[in-house]
Amino acid sequence: MWGIELQKKSKISLARQIFLSLKQRILTGEIAQGEELPSTRELAKGLGVSRNTVCDAYDMLLTEGFIVSRQGALSRVAEGLHIVQKEVVSLKEHKKEHVPVRWDFKTGQPDLSLFPWPLWSQMIRHATNTLSAQQLEYSGPKGYEPLCQEIAHWLMRNRSIDVNPEDIFITSGATQAFHLLVDILYKEDYAFALENPSHPGIHTVLQDRGHLLQWMPVDQQGANISCIRDKDISAVYVTPSHQFPLGGILPATRRAALIRLASEKDFYVIEDDYDSEFRYSGAPVSPIYSMDSSRVVYVGTFSKTLFPSLRIGFTILPKPLQAKWKHYRNFMDVQNPVLEQVALTEFLRKRKMDKHIQHMRRIYAEKRNVLLNAVEHSFCNAVQFWGDASGLHVALQFPGMEFTKEFMLSCQNAGIRIQAVSQYCSVQNNHTDKLLMGYGHLNNTQIRKGVKALFQLIAENSSQGLALK
Amino acid sequence: MWGIELQKKSKISLARQIFLSLKQRILTGEIAQGEELPSTRELAKGLGVSRNTVCDAYDMLLTEGFIVSRQGALSRVAEGLHIVQKEVVSLKEHKKEHVPVRWDFKTGQPDLSLFPWPLWSQMIRHATNTLSAQQLEYSGPKGYEPLCQEIAHWLMRNRSIDVNPEDIFITSGATQAFHLLVDILYKEDYAFALENPSHPGIHTVLQDRGHLLQWMPVDQQGANISCIRDKDISAVYVTPSHQFPLGGILPATRRAALIRLASEKDFYVIEDDYDSEFRYSGAPVSPIYSMDSSRVVYVGTFSKTLFPSLRIGFTILPKPLQAKWKHYRNFMDVQNPVLEQVALTEFLRKRKMDKHIQHMRRIYAEKRNVLLNAVEHSFCNAVQFWGDASGLHVALQFPGMEFTKEFMLSCQNAGIRIQAVSQYCSVQNNHTDKLLMGYGHLNNTQIRKGVKALFQLIAENSSQGLALK
User: Mutation test of the interface with chain B: which of A114, A172, A209, A301, choosing the one with the most B Cβ atoms within 10 A?
Assistant: First the structure.
């Protein structure tokens, strides 16, 4: 009957099935515009359903304007409904066959198997027990106020900086902070200054927007800012506590010069303090923020100290940027979910964070020692370490070697996931002799065997001249 | 001794106190560059602390480059550290004194007091019990796959649309979807077409970016698309199931014409299906997506059906847009937190969502009746309703009246929070005689008393000529 096939056991009601079937045939032109539909009585009889069912279906067609009806006349198909449907081309992604990764030295990877999940679950449970109906509402782009307060206390305990909770803004990780700051700090014809090499996060956003970039070369002490002195700069992005990826600590003289320049030329310094919690030797390094809080936007994250899929970070914003930040965040995603914010507040308040970080610092310090020893054992004096005093990775320099694309491909084919520093560089590239080794997530055996595998591969490639200059 | 005052009971270690104090005085220039610091023995004696403590403090200064030291010589303050600190001007926000809100008719407000929080807490607990360490990692910009699958089932049950879970992308609410779509669909010199009036979400993002806009007038049936026929359009944003804010249902003829035009001129239709779950009379309205899934980007959210601070929504993306979406989301905030996604999966899988929405639909239908009755009782025939068949608000038209800024201010002063439709309009404004009344969050008494208060205010203002043309 009218090409309608009903399935009595379907979860979709009979009326809806009739509606969907008629609608489909109207759209494809099988039932032409102006054509009369059968009367409800007739169709009901034909399909063996109640007349009410057909009336419901016709009502749906009427509500959505597929048919028009006049008192006493049969319903007709409305004009102008026919759509010529294009064939949908199936765009099946071409999947490359990869050699499985056996030794994974990717960077920025915390050891999640040691995360105190039962304790965190307690905090979540506490949060579900304390949240009120009012807190299910939007609470605005700044973030959960008690969390901002606890972060301020935490920053005093952990980084010795004195921050007004009013200036702390919760984010979905550091990534979101960089995205927002690009929009907030943008000035036409002014450049963003980045370290070369640097993390692709902020770099990619700037590239996508087509904004001007100014690269600052990086040496063992971090960024060299002298090249930006006579440029028009809207903001400078730096990783002063542990340059990413080379690990240098920006010396106080450069810091002071940067702050003076920022003041003079009226730009902001974005301080990415991404790995500062894990420092293994030497004294803790203070953030630049502590030098001049009016010029520095401090960006912190809990992705490494807790876990990445938590999606909580924070920014300390100078007052003049706050209104713009609120506006942009409001129309970006409004705010973070409330539940994790309440849980994290309790985690910080009870000093569980302090304990967890102390614990992990010991663990990571041991892993780092295993890595350094394994590298020294395999490569003897052929290698220099960069930035091994903190963080979850080190950079290895092999003087005289050059890690070409071919070499990186042979790593992949050998099941070794490892990155060359040059992958993080702009076109001007002075770091072709360096590799990055992340170790936070590996156990001691994995580290030792991975280093051995890398050594063999480098030895083979060297003898074939692949990795040698 | 050297201006250092130690607090023995502080949580900050003595070494750190010494470090911070010396650092501060170096930065302000009180201790000049090149100046020698006292020997560690001397300072330790002077401060009454152990020599180790002072050594630690000096190590910190050395690490951060505040001092330089040579074997056998006293440490000296490094060059170029002095920062002239600007006076930080206190920018205390000027807080306006507001009359407290007594009758709050804001739109889009669910009744959160009826949210089944104990049930939701169970889902959260279930999620904390099932998450593995691996799931604490980044899982990428698409979203939690089992959630995408449950949303596909839900869409079939609730909206009768057949969606491949591969095409569903989780978002932080609809807000984030609009933000991303502006970046993804932007074409230079092409306009985004918006309904006039429309929601400020996507409009504001477009304005911030300085993109071209094309307004489509809205009548009782929704957007009139004839004005975009000969324009260069990159995307059309519509609310076809319940136009925001006027409530019209876009008729099938206009839908088909829109899809044909999109195909012809190669643009995408963004379908904001924001309120479709709450429909009180007539048959359910299908999304445009069901007409041509290759041309429509469907945007849904759980902010109204569950709660706003959950921050979960989703988008159904045509294949050609998916790679770009992933790229932009990756550098925006990477992904949603994992916990709520797992909880929502279970909530959908167990059909708790279906039950909750059925329950709330009954509740909101009653509130809506109370509102309609109260308005009819007070205003008799002076009022026409727009879009009262679904959603959490209605628009009221008062033919012959004009709701001026002065009138809206007098509402505020009378403790009535209410919005005029004209607040959502572009400059061309044909809706100055309409008010919006949100009722989802109000109880029956609040609705009745609020309508009465509004009636009195309009009556007073009419007699003073304020709200009359």
Answer: A172
